[in-house]
Write a structure and sequence with these properties.
single chain, alpha+beta, three-stranded antiparallel sheet, two-stranded antiparallel ribbon, 5 strands
């Protein structure tokens, strides 16, 4: 659940977030796609080590759940760190596409007909 350093000590997740327990924004879901901004903004400061790891993993689009798995950190911690990066202009966020809640009647008819032929 935490990061081990060279001496094998654990870094608790709340230390990675500076004690914050809630994200500053509500932009992220488990399937939100995140991509590092390349090149970084001119006024960007040097990222903290945990932010730098995220930026390396986000060189190509990656969803929040996969990012948390790669970092071996709770999703809640990753989302807080992503909020920092988004506010600093270091990442872009692509919200998941909304899926229509109304059924496609033509598709359902084709499925029914296909099942009837089995």
């Amino acid at each position: 659940m935490g990061e081990g350093d060279a001496a094998g000590r654990l870094v608790r997740p709340f230390t990675l977030t500076g004690g914050r327990t809630r994200p500053s924004r509500a932009d992220f879901t488990l399937i939100t796609s995140v991509t590092a901004v390349d090149p970084p903004p001119e006024d960007a400061t040097r990222p903290q080590p945990e932010h730098a790891r995220i930026l390396r993993l986000c060189a190509k689009p990656i969803v929040v759940a996969e990012l948390a798995a790669e970092l071996d950190l709770p999703v809640s911690v990753v989302v807080i760190l992503l909020c920092d990066l988004l506010e600093a202009g270091r990442i872009t966020v692509q919200a998941p596409r909304l899926v229509s809640r109304t059924p496609d009647l033509d598709l359902l008819q084709k499925v029914r007909d296909g099942l009837g032929r089995l």
